[in-house]
Amino acid sequence: MSKNAKIAAGGVAVGFILLIWLPWWVTFLIVVGVPVAAYLALDPSQRRRLRRASRREIGR
């Protein structure tokens, strides 16, 4: 199993645990809010590089 697959599996497991303990809307806010906060924490040059890389992957 690759490193990214392990991270994804861990994220799914945490999501299921949060769904059991918290209301669904709180879980949704956490699942959406963490990546948004991480993106906003990047420098503008890092954001440009990330957008460029993701566009390149889409055009594959």
Can you walk me through this structure?
The protein has about 60 residues and is mainly alpha-helical. The chain has helices at about 5-20, 25-40, 45-60. The longest helix has 19 residues, at about 5-20.
Question: What characteristics describe this protein?
Answer:
single chain; 60 residues; mainly alpha
Question: What order do the helices and strands come in, and which of them pair?
Answer:
Layout: H1 3-21, H2 24-40, H3 44-58
Shape label:
flat
Tell me the total number of β-strands. 0
Order of helices and strands: HHH
How would a textbook summarize the main sheet?
none
Class by SSE composition:
mainly alpha
Radius of gyration, taken over Cα atoms and rounded to an integer in Å:
15 Å
Gist of the model:
By secondary structure, this protein is mainly α. Helices cover 85% and strands 0% of the residues.
